[in-house]
């Protein structure tokens, strides 16, 4: 293989370092030491620069990098008028780019010629690229009935486990892997493709990854995202006019909830808790009753709700899903609650009368 064609694949550690740099540079007043340290880190190797490219692409589409004032942080990266007159636009050959990687790297040139533009104008360039290439879109829909689960092998090598009573739309094009969870729950094991991000739209949440494992649970009032491996960017799907969508980066064993009120505090999770349903169980660890019933309702023919006076009671334990109605009774017994079946369309859990 030609040495000039070697690809520099960043490790998870380098990707984490790139994310840390993006977070630091988004601060109100990066210091001169920050600027020097960033330049040194970028100059260390091509893998660092590739890692920053990937994270810039990941965060750029979430709107985070619109607050990254590279021109102010690095004024020397803006070419002078004389330089602009001397330099004529041309398309460098692949071999020339690779050769430049081997002979050295200049921070101002890199910022203006690559990642800074991709970071700040990523969405516009992506849309333009889609329009120019007119890439065909492959759309498929997958559904499950109550009590049914299924595993879906996607064309890119990714795998999706679809929980009961769920609906997923998949749209793959040459440049993006886009999915939409219309209802229910799904676990995504995404094949890594740096040049083709994988996105999930689910209610109030937008999720964007390059390659990782995560669970998405869409509920009537919120969407919960739990990560079991890799890095996942989560942002609000909608905000009030003029406001920047909130966003957060999740790593292994972290979770967040997104609702019309914004993002919750990032919490801790585990593979056992996030993927309990894939093993025919529900695992709760001091989970509010209202949230526990939201999960159980996916399996019940008649949904259940908690009365206002008991909805905040917490529940811990492992419950089997082979008989959801018996599981509901077990939860009521564990919390010493009464079940009201007077409404044929709803089972209400409330405190027992004295």
Automatic annotation (TrEMBL):
Kinase among keywords: no
Keywords: Membrane, Transmembrane
Domain spans labelled FecR protein: 142-232
Pfam families (alphabetical): DUF4880, FecR
Database matches in InterPro entries: FecR, FecR_N, Ferrdict_sens_TM
Domain FecR N-terminal: 16-58
Coiled coil: none
Ranges of biased composition (kind: Basic and acidic residues): 81-93
Annotated segments matching region Disordered: 76-100
Top-level taxon of the source organism: Bacteria
A single MF term (Gene Ontology): sigma factor antagonist activity
Protein name, UniProt field: DUF4880 domain-containing protein
